[in-house]
Structures are given as structure tokens and as C-alpha cells.
Amino acid sequence: MWVMEIEVTSAVLKRLRSEAERAAPEECCGILLGGGNSIADALPAANVAQDPRRHFEVDPQTLVDAHRAARAGGPEVAGYYHSHPMGPAFPSATDRAMASGDGRIWAIIGKDDVTFWRDGEEGFLRLSCRLRER
């Protein structure tokens, strides 16, 4: 059973907001790094989607490199993040269609908020977030 609360550092939240602001009007995206129910870092990735204003696709090489680093003893790939520059911080119909149900965490950066979700077999489950100073 998955925990419904995760811990996120203030530095991660700041980075997510900064990446979203930098990429707008396109969607930013990247990888959430951590362990257990804790997100300790965010690794930006190029958005290689054909239409980055409406979709996101994490650069495959960045993802491969993150998994290799985890196998070598680095932080695990806890999930992914992306922004909705003009929309709310909730999974869109496209997000739901593209989700794999692998149990990873998704962070969605909207116009006014950052929310966290578990990508489960039954769909997205909203997670509460406990902020930890870094």
C-alpha cells in the first residue's frame, strides 16, 4: 500500500516553479529524485514533445542517465514533473492517457500551484505534501 503523504524540500518546490517559469509558454519537464516517500531533488530535462506548448515528453537520454546513476548508488527515480503553463495543477486528459500506472510520483506545476500525484493502476491519486527545509 502506498503512503498518501510525501516529503518535499523547499529547494525542490522552488526549482519546479523556476523551471516552469523559464519554459513558459512551453511545458517544462524533468525527473523527480529521492527515496521512499521523499523527493530530494528535481532533474530538468529537455521537453522533446512535437508540440511542447501542449504536451511533454522527457528527453529519453536524461531518463536513461538518471536510472544509470540510481543503479550506481545515486538517488532513485521517484517520478516525473511537468508544467501546465496556462492551466491548473491537475492531471489533464492527456496526462491520464499517457500514464503508465507504474506507481511513480508526478508533480504538476500549474499557474498558481504545485501538486503531487501517484500514478497508480487505478489512475492518479492526489498526495499531500509535507514541506521540509533544505
From TrEMBL:
Which BP terms in the Gene Ontology apply to this protein?
proteolysis
The GO terms describing molecular function are: metalloexopeptidase activity; zinc ion binding
Task: List, alphabetically, the InterPro entries matched.
Answer: JAB_dom_prok, JAMM/MPN+_dom, VirAsm_ModProt
**What are the entry keywords?**
Hydrolase, Metal-binding, Metalloprotease, Protease, Zinc
Could you tell me which residue ranges the JAB1/MPN/MOV34 metalloenzyme domain spans?
Answer: 5-122
Name the Gene3D superfamilies on file. Cytidine Deaminase, domain 2
What name is this protein filed under? JAB1/MPN/MOV34 metalloenzyme domain-containing protein
